[in-house]
Predict the 3D structure of the following.
Amino acid sequence: MELFLDVQAWWGQTTNWLSATRRDPCDSKLPVQPLDKGQVQEIERPLGLALWCVQGRLWLKHDGHAGDQVIQAGETFRAVHAGRLTILALSNACFGVDLPQS
């Protein structure tokens, strides 16, 4: 029983340390836009823009592009039309945008 209590104490300290060191990807020095679940963001004339999902899941509707697309953390979408890009957060999410090079 002593060993179990020691392991339990160790595990409590370890989980406290992990919680303290775990970072929210949306809370970074990178230029990211947080969205709450259900929140919508629109980008006008996004031609050439790359949108990358940092956290969560995003539903994308790009005017001029057939169909919708869902991206999640670690995935990227590149706008190939100038039509409006609508972004809906399917969960709490954040995303970044790389502007096209002139």
